[in-house]
Amino acid sequence: MTLPAIDQMLFSDGHGSDRARAFTLVARGQAHSRPEIGAALGLRSTTTSRLVGDLVERRLLLETAGQKAGRGRPAGILIANPRRVGASVIYVASQSLVGALVDLDGQLLEERVVEIASDADNRVVAGVMAGLGADLLAAMPRGMEHAGTAVSLSGLLDLRRKQWLMSSRWPNLRGLDVGIALGEAVGPVVVCRNLDAELRARMAQDSEQFSDGALLLHWGWGIGLGYAIGGRSLAPPGGSFGEVGHWRFAALDGRRCGCGNTACLETGAALWSLLPELRRRWPDLAEDENRLYRQLARCDLTSLPEIDTAARLLARALANASRLLFPTRIIVTGPFVANAQLWAHFDGLFRAEGTMHGFMMPELVSDRSSRQYEVHGAATPLLSKALEGLLQGA
Description:
12 helices, alpha/beta, 20% strand, disordered N terminus, 5-stranded mixed β-sheet, 15 strands
């Protein structure tokens, strides 16, 4: 069961702590009955019975009749109720906003996709967001509690004010107040960077990869990075982080970026700037990164001077970021890494940048972006908080 890390929650009273531990045992498949919970927690049968009865009453656990073996009452089978709580996630996919409703198990219960024209402004995007939020709320199964709505976005964000400052996919969007757009009905509303959400889910799945410091760099429509160390993401709660795509390079002087500056890395290395040239060679290339991942794998990208320039600039930016954060591992995602020749070329360029005396070069690996990671990572804080409230409540 893909549940939030409830074992890390702190409870002010002992009963709440036992309640959380009992629920965790069942959710993880480590206990399936009252006797097994009692044995695992060292509780008397009467205490265990009250504890389980409380969790069943809260609808966090479901109990089914077990088979009778010998005398006495048959032991009931306990299972966690993943649909006790759900969360909505709204995120960007190509030229669309996608709404997803997930339960405690991480299962996708509902999905809505709305394509948005590239010339859309704040009013249009806000209307789509509001519609998705309302649709997901209406799609909740009966008896499910809504934990809130997480909005996972690319581009420039002001997380403290919940503002979407700009997006290269929709140039006319400026300073959209996400909280106002969605309204109170689907709240609480949280806004996060898509890379931070993906990084959170990756850490939950394999914390060892991120124990000594790891970078997650996305090379796609835009360019950005996330960083984690000791199993925790370095993402300031109220500010932006990792906007390497807007580092400025003299070699790109004069190229205008949607952020308002010129010479940003994205103007020479992001998909939005490279796609027109790529389509002159391969007219059928899509904008959707999932489709492009398959398409670019078959293209002779290294024969294009623009791609070579992009790879050199990005390799230098990544090397400089490594001298700032000193990761032991770097994961690069996005459609470009699907091309084996380009990836080998990029790896060589990064190695050629070197590091400082006495330091090891970080491990460089490629991987595919995952919308599932993003959805789960965005939803987890809301689900954790809602679940904690249910477990703590009197």
